[in-house]
Amino acid sequence: MKRVDDFRLKFGKKELVPIVIGGMGVDISTAELALEAARLGGIGHISDALVHDVSDRRYNTSFIKDKTRFYKHNINNSDKAIIKFDLDMLAEATKHFVQATMAAKRGEGLVFVNCMEKLTMNGPRETLQVRMSAALDAGIDGITLSAGLHLGSFGLLADHPRFRDAKLGIIVSSVRALQIFLRKNARLNRLPDYVIVEGPLAGGHLGFGMDWAEYDLATIMAEVVQFLKTEQLDIPVIAAGGIFTGSDATSFLEKGAAAVQVATRFTVANECGLPDKVKQEYFKASEEDIVVNNISPTGYPMRMLKGTPAIGSGIRPNCEAYGYLLDGNGGCAYITAYNREVALHPDSKTISVMDKTCLCTHMRNFNCWTCGHTTPRLKDTTRRLPDGSYQTLSAEHIFKDYQFSIDSQVLLPD
Ligand SMILES: Cc1cc2nc3c(=O)[nH]c(=O)nc-3n(C[C@H](O)[C@H](O)[C@H](O)COP(=O)(O)O)c2cc1C
Prior knowledge:
alpha/beta; 8-stranded parallel sheet; two-stranded antiparallel ribbon; 12 strands; 32% helix; globular; binds flavin mononucleotide
């Protein structure tokens, strides 16, 4: 009987354990988590979501404080169009984070950064270009393009000296999205080094509509593998979404995946950035506690725990501090929803906004508990402690369980 360790993800001559820990912003897939994946011979992701804040928390910089002070005069203004990101500061914050992470890297694996296109930052093209270029400058091994079609993203990097040597990949949820991406980028003569096919059971934003339950990862992956074969394109395909055991992973590797990307099992790792209290919420969750809703201003459905504090919260938009979801015209669906509720309840001190949430602030404060479909199974991966809480696990334990387990078993910690 085969196990994950019988397979290798090949990038040219480099061979890796075919386990990728997916990007989880904001700082949920921490540098520490990504570095463990790399040390163990796989691939880990950091995320550049709210990178200024991540830098401030980790390296004592004051990007957010400085930006908030600069735009303080606008805090009571419902129009956020004037809020812009200083591109030099964005590059500096990204370099800080990436350089420090890469300097700590040990082992044969790789560390990639997850770049979401939906972080439009009131200047989609120029901010994305700076984010990706600065990460390459600072020595990141690769960039995973996510949360968007990224039709112009390769073009933004085409003049970068590392455009052809760094690993560049994209997350898609359909063969069609991949076809469009490849067509749009054909003139650059630069194929992606890997394609992550993310199915509807993943955490974070979903690349499906609210009819997500009608799709399944195995079918989409088979379509992508077949398409690449027909086109004679030799691009490793990485399957993601709902892969909970080593046996699940092995079955995808046997069906033609070059690796698997996993995340939910690592949300309860010691190295994961979620506060311990939130990790316990993930452990405790049952199937009825999970919802897929439309409260993300990005327009993509998102899966989360029902008890997530972000649902119904009516906080004032905090774009002076963050503003990562401002589209190119200073708009964000949460601002619209919030202003509507304020107009409807002019005398209320606190309001509730049910249809959208202030995602930047809530993700920053770990108050949006996004999770994968398999979260209710996390409790079966550990032991209960005498005080009734669940024991969190080392990333190494989870990684090796994926790598070596068979028979759909999950190894409990000592
Ligand atoms: C808490 C959490 C946060 C996530 N955040 C992101 C993100 O910021 N960007 C992204 O591309 N994917 C994100 N994802 C998706 C994962 O990277 C991964 O592809 C997916 O969850 C794998 O499925 P699994 O969780 O069932 O293992 C997130 C997943 C989780 C569980």
